[in-house]
Amino acid sequence: MKPELSVLIRLQGIDLEIRKLKAEKEKLPERFNALNETIEEKNREIEELKDKLADLRTRKTEVEDELELELERLKKSQQKLTAVKTNREFQALSKEIEEIKKANKAREDEILQLEEQIEQLKGEIDKKKAEIEGFQKEADAEQKRIAAAEKEYDAKIDALTKERNEVEKEVKPDLLAKYRFLADKRAGLVVAAVDEGVCSACNMNIPPQMFNELLREERILFCPSCQRIIYALKTGT
What we know:
With 237 residues, this protein is mainly alpha-helical. Helices cover 76% and strands 5% of the residues. The chain has five helices and four strands, in the order ααααββαββ.
């Protein structure tokens, strides 16, 4: 194999490793972001529950005010009952009193139901707040883990970048320019082996004449299909 190809293969290996490390680093915040989304969702749920709670409390106040007024009305009606002079008036007022009592009983029952619903909602809110606290602790721990992991990735990438810069010095400027161009277009996979006349990168056949020339290793050749730099994979290579 031509020495230039060996250097390019080494350079490609470094570049691919750098790409891999950068991709892994970019994925680090995924769990942290998911936790934050969960926290935001729980907060939205809490706000919805608070709105419902406010509605229930408003309704409870309304019913309590109605009950207070009707109790006063009942008291006055009961006082009037002792002063009625005819049986007809007595019956009418008694009926009115019973209706007030019945309506007040319904109000008292509604107040009890509202109180139960209010307590239930408060419990749900407290539960979600506790869940948020747990998720927040996880998010804080995850953030610290990410920061530590990013430092490790940065250190590895920096070391590989320095190595890459040294290796680049061994490549002729025109060939290096071609390599960089292809690296951008081919996701870092620039140099490909040709096995039994087939490019391992694009799986296309190399013309026989080109393959024969490739075996002679007289000059740098490019795949006619994917334009990558190619070399012949020989037995034992």
